[in-house]
């Protein structure tokens, strides 16, 4: 721990001193991300400008973020870490940190301060949910509905409970095939206030209550495992309302003109960010830290929002968010953090899920399979 | 004139019979009458030797394949079998606690006594320094919900407990915060000298730490935790104990030692400091370890928690296998899981049922095609063969997604049915995201594995047999049933085994088109590998699946006979 700290301190010093070239650094990096439009936005906002500054660096992308925790564990067991920087969700970052697979970092030492001099840890604020986690974007899991459903007689859903209202809004739903978020939404629509959701879910009765609510739509729901499935189902008219990531909805609506409309009510915030695998050799770590210092500064995070509708994790980036790089539309109204969208949003409790995931998942899958 | 070939002994060139002939000619026998070779060694031994050389040569030929199979197939399977029972993490992370718990009885229904908490404090402090405690928390959380955060929280707080003592010692005399004082107190003079001569930049190895004589007897607890500390900074940080203040844990231990032992006779370095502290400690504010853990979280008094730790303390556990058959290893022994958490039995049954359905559909669809392939003229047969193989060359994902487009409610088949007026627009058929969809898509994907072995067997059946049967008066049906079909059975057997074994472990197709009722056990295994990280349970499920396949294979061998399986002519 001490060693990494001194190492980090020296790195930060040299970076600040501009003596980058003097350091021992490799010229290649393997970054891990989610593929699709999200990874493309990272390429445009982070790696392209970085490679322009350092033409000697070659960057390899690996689209393994969905199984990052399992693969990092396997790599650690084999004692052969081939990744340099990994993009994961906040919950996965916590697990990686718990398992000792990700490196603990001092955010103020390795990250750039805001332009006004605010330290990185204050600029990121609550987004730093784990000592290993370097936040990038805030996204949300939320819902959207088709705008051309005849059976709805001109009515449009205005809140999350439209998911469960099969009388007023008949048709197939599409939801993720795991308990997280679905259990919360079910309880909320069964009259449980936001702040009591996790206390309720902690009890057997609460879990049964949530499943009973979900029972009302179980057989008319397409349960997706990858977010693309849900967009496909909605776009093909297989489903009329359902959940996915807000960035995916944005690209379906704004870029592909699908007849969909966002339903921001009770959107569940989540954060995505980088972790550095534990045990990188020094020359690789130096390169990663150099890249990270650049890629997580205020301007770079704001730049990413030109390509995808995810909110930058730094407070100082928010005012810099501008228009979409190709479509030219204002991005701010499409951000989950936009005041109009976040009026009634729900905050997921990562620690709670870390405890209850195994138990509730077993129940949920057993319930689904019946 | 004698015939040159009649007598081998007269032939100039050597023949295979030569050694025998020579032996006979020389009548080489030893005292016990054993046949000897030309060089005097027993013939039997020489023969064995030459056979051995041949065997080794043959083995070397197959060695690359053998090593490859061993490394990439046998070793992973062995590893998987091992993982399904391995459970060293508990006894490795909490060695003292596991030992202290041996005297505790779950049946008592009470929390264990002080010694167990003392041991836990020891273990947990060390585990938290090495960052192992959260890993153990995750492991135990598979068995008892909530352990994960309990360990994470306690790992953060163990530091605080020691801090309270540290502060009191430092308040008493600020020499206690001096790492050099500690080093002089605990380390021998010899070591101190060597350590002082060492410098971090020299690149030399850290001198091995030596205890001061007598200190272990005087301050046993302190010595133990100080040694842990020295070992940790040596291996993890490569730091000298002269530059690092000891862990707060060392101060807690010092308090315990000073309360229990008399140090008035001690006369080594810092004797005064020690004696001053000994006089002061009875007035220190203190808290037993049990009180401390209960102040972190009430759940540390829960017998259920301790029972779980106890139940999972052996190095090998049946816990994963019990979980894999919808049971649970509880402190009281194995028990069935709650009704609403059972899933694996259902999934195993479903996997078997759907794999059999897929195999039968493949036989039904594949047999006529293979028959056509074998009996059509070569040109047409080749064309047909390409049609069979074409999907085989297409990406699995593309084929699966294509079925989605075909079968979904707004898909091609439903659209056609609605257009024809066979189905109303409001009542489109549900053909995907259920068992039906999985069976259709997988039958299509696995069909070539059925057709190819059938075809290769059928193409070796001489058409004359059927003709002969017909000429002897059999009807078409009888000739097929009594003559052709029995000869094609080995092809069906081979195809069925291939298709069934492939189907039972299939993953990606059911994941995409299976919905909730059409998923296989392999989807659950994948979930435990990549999402829940419960690799032990995944390994146990995989082992059971392997056992089921082997049993079916054995049953097949007993009923049909594995000799009756032919993959080719």
UniProtKB/TrEMBL annotation, chain A:
Pfam families: SBP_bac_8
Keywords: Signal
Transmembrane parts of this sequence: none
Signal peptide region: 1-21
Cited PANTHER family: ABC TRANSPORTER SUBSTRATE-BINDING PROTEIN (PTHR30222:SF2), SPERMIDINE/PUTRESCINE-BINDING PERIPLASMIC PROTEIN (PTHR30222)
Protein name (record): Spermidine/putrescine ABC transporter substrate-binding protein
Taxon lineage: Bacteria, Pseudomonadati, Pseudomonadota, Alphaproteobacteria, Rhodobacterales
UniProtKB/TrEMBL annotation, chain B:
CDD domains, sorted: TM_PBP2
Coiled coil: none
Membrane topology designation: Multi-pass membrane protein
Domain of life of the organism encoding this protein: Bacteria
Keyword Nucleotide-binding included in the entry's annotation: no
Keyword Cell cycle: no
Residue stretches spanning the membrane: 56-78, 352-374, 380-400, 436-457, 489-508, 535-556
Region annotated Disordered, chain positions: 1-22
Alphabetically ordered keywords of this record: Cell membrane, Membrane, Transmembrane, Transmembrane helix, Transport
Family per similarity comment: Belongs to the binding-protein-dependent transport system permease family. CysTW subfamily.
Name recorded for this polypeptide: Polyamine ABC transporter permease
